[in-house]
Amino acid sequence: MYIKEPGDRMEEYCGVFGIYDVKGGAQDAAQAAYYGLYALQHRGQESGGIAASDGHEIRQYRNLGLIPEVFDEETLAQLRGHIAIGHVRYSTFGDKNVVNAQPLVARCKIGTLALAHNGNLVNAASLRRRLEDAGAIFQTSVDTEVILNLIARMSARGLDEAIVRMMQTVRGSYALVLLTERALIGIRDPYGIRPLCLGRLGESYVLASESCALDAVGAEFVRDVRPGEVVVIDENGLRSFHVPAPLQSRLCVFEFVYFARPDSVIDGVSVYAARKAAGRRLAMGDDVQADMVIGVPDSALPAAIGYAEQSGIPYGEGLAKNRYVGRTFIQPNQGMREIGVRTKLNALARNVRGKRLVLVDDSIVRGTTSRKIVEMLRTAGAREVHMRISSPPVLNPCYFGIDIATSEELIGHGRSVEGICASIGADSLRFLPESELLKTVEGSGCGFCTGCFDGSYPVNPGDEDDAGLDLDL
């Protein structure tokens, strides 16, 4: 398994999008997918791709880069059809290579299939070995191809049955959009770890990782795809069926802490409202004396506003962000990563000079970013820097589609809060307890995965059980 150089954030995983015009008259589904993926760009900046069908043939294009770098008008014009799926990727499994970009396309007994996947399988390596022993040939190093191979091999039983069998075989997280020549299918794992929602645009149905992508194409939000649900959209309209799902779903709570766009609503909860509520709860009982509250752009700003409102300490801007700089996790070594932090953020010296600051951020992973920001603010003349984090300490790896360091590389592993504070150079440090974080997402009607905080995972990370896999087809 390919292991990336760990970064200093819990980096996004991937984003998926799909659209189907029921009447089949529109031929610009790929253009809608382009705008939907643009809205999901925050979920992956490594590669992008779109596959489209005109009812008879699937065409696809994918490449490394941001969506506007991958596609131009000429490329989109070649992706003719009234059905399309798309993908933006940040590699959590598999090499950074164009061959691993999605959607993946395969031909099987029932025709051509294209698949885009957000998530991560914990038994992918075991399944891949079994499939290779049975004669399967793999073109990529991503676990998405394992899913596609399983569906294709079982497709002689019918596509619905093949999907059910696949869901009963794989272990882990997945939100999938699957394209056939004549249908668009959305699939959410039985625990609902990865988000997926359904929208409507005139006579078109839309599937997306986040509701902000529905807004981008003018679609009306209909509902979230339920854990364990398969949504099938074809010329007859929409139908759905379910595989058995646990009574308590386990949506990744970090969607609300950091990953999702603030204008998204996931499983009934506003991301912006949850972040602002986290900031308010962080301020409750905090008796720090300060002159100004500032946030680390962009995901921590709602929490900083909530903290300021609750505490009565004025909110202000203390950090300017260069939005045209690559993310710090792509730097090849620690020294270059620290240069990346300084290039990406700069202190507003006139705003912070001589002030006692409350600095709000959403999380601390390795501590590199926090350490450099604290140092930057002190250099700019800040008198005190009190760090406040709107989530609990990150103590454990994630196995379900997030690029996070191993436990030993996490600053919170084996350190007290006081030890973390000393390491990042802050005057004080406070985290939001897990019980308080979960109160910010009350009313969702679902449970949450908190494994990175407390080690409680919905699926055993060591579960490679594939005994039920029947390859004698």
Could you characterize what this model shows?
- With 473 residues, the chain is of the alpha+beta class.
- The chain has two domains: 14-245, Glutamine Phosphoribosylpyrophosphate, subunit 1, domain 1 (4-Layer Sandwich); 273-454, Rossmann fold (3-Layer(aba) Sandwich), CATH 3.40.50.2020.
- Helices cover 28% and strands 25% of the residues.
- It has helices spanning 29-39, 67-70, 73-77, 124-133, 144-154, 159-169, 211-216, 254-259, 271-283, 301-311, 334-344, 349-352, 368-379, 417-424, 434-439, 451-454, and strands spanning 14-21, 47-53, 58-64, 83-89, 104-108, 111-121, 172-179, 184-188, 197-201, 204-208, 220-224, 229-234, 237-242, 251-252, 265-266, 269-270, 292-295, 319-321, 345-347, 356-361, 384-389, 428-431, 448-449.
- The strands form six sheets. It has a seven-stranded antiparallel β-sheet with strand order 3-2-4-1-10-9-11. It has a six-stranded antiparallel β-sheet with strand order 5-6-7-8-12-13.
- The two termini are 28 Å apart.
- The relative contact order is 0.13.
- The model is unreliable at 1-6 and 326-334 (pLDDT under 50).
Number of strands: 23
What is the first-to-last residue Cα distance? 28 Å
Total number of helices = 16
The averaged pLDDT comes out at 89
CATH topology of the largest domain: Glutamine Phosphoribosylpyrophosphate, subunit 1, domain 1
Strand order across the largest sheet:
3-2-4-1-10-9-11
Radius of gyration: 23 Å
The largest β sheet comes out as: 7 strands, antiparallel
Q: What best-fitting shape do the alpha-carbon axes yield?
A: globular
CATH architecture of the largest domain: 4-Layer Sandwich
Helix content class: 25-40%
Runs in which pLDDT lies below 50 for 5 or more consecutive residues are 1-6, 326-334
* CATH class descriptor of the largest domain: Alpha Beta
Give the count of structural domains: 2
Structural class: alpha+beta
What percent strand? 25-35%
